[in-house]
Amino acid sequence: MTDAASTTLLAMTIACVVANAFIVAADLARAKFVLANSAEVGLRPEALPWLAVLKGAGAAGLLAGLAGLTPLGLAAAVGLVLFYLCALGAHVRASVFHTIAFPLLFLTLALTAATYFAVVAE
């Protein structure tokens, strides 16, 4: 793998950490956009803190991976991939396509993080 590709994957992994930290804060603050989107896909507001914990654990695991615990980083990235696949499923099930770009973006970031830990950070 080229240095440019490795650097890009690293940057995307860091972006995944930042994006997940942002959405965890938004979930815990019960931001209007989070509540509106959650209601559209049929998610009860009481579930938001639990989902924030899962996303926060994923972001923390990615940080641990970047600090040298590569298997933990890979496990966290895979967990986030599964989480955002479920989020996409919730959007599709509820036929909410006007906001589907957000879980797709988060899924893409999680997939690049998984690629980074599986290929580059070995």
From TrEMBL:
GO CC, one annotated term: membrane
Protein's UniProt keywords contain Transmembrane helix: yes
InterPro entries given in the database record: DoxX (IPR032808)
Keywords: Membrane, Transmembrane, Transmembrane helix
Location within or outside the cell: Membrane
Keyword Transmembrane: yes
Domain of life: Bacteria
Protein name as annotated: DoxX family protein
